[in-house]
Design goal:
- It holds the Pfam family OB_ChsH2_C.
- The chain is mainly β.
- The protein has 1 helix and 8 strands; from the N terminus they run H-E-E-E-E-E-E-E-E.
Length: about 130
């Protein structure tokens, strides 16, 4: 699937840099310890601004998903699966599911992170069945 250009700013830059090494990170608030994703300037728990990034396991479960049969723009091959994946550490990522027939996915399916390369050396985290290598 071709990817549109994804911008980087001062808040998201550390997250994107970690993807160059295929490391999945989430923000962590130093004040209250809450983990959150997507990267943002404030903690969603306490409103604090002392945030850093922590590596996470990359395992989780499918929280919800939909199968896209008609692409919203030219380029992506259909069908593909857009999903919410709840990481073991708590945060939810909006992502794609790969590595299985689109019609075979179920909520609560265990998944692990996989990586889709981007043209600039970054990688986009996608998720595959946890039981596949």
């Amino acid at each position: 699937m071709s990817e549109p250009e994804i911008p980087v700013d001062e808040v998201t830059a550390p997250w994107w840099e970690a993807t160059r090494e295929r490391r999945l990170t989430v923000q962590r608030c130093r004040a209250c310890g809450r983990h959150q994703h997507y990267p943002r300037a404030l903690c969603t728990g306490c409103g604090g601004t002392d945030l850093d990034f922590a590596d996470v396991s990359g395992v989780g479960v499918v929280d919800a998903f939909t199968i896209v049969h008609r692409a919203p723009r030219p380029g992506p091959e259909v069908p593909y699966v857009v999903a919410r994946v709840r990481l073991a550490e708590g945060p939810v990522l909006l992502t794609n599911l790969v590595g299985a027939d689109p019609g075979s996915w179920r909520c609560d399916a265990p998944v692990r992170v996989s990586w889709r390369p981007l043209p600039d050396g970054r990688h986009l985290p996608v998720f595959a069945p946890a039981d596949k290598d």
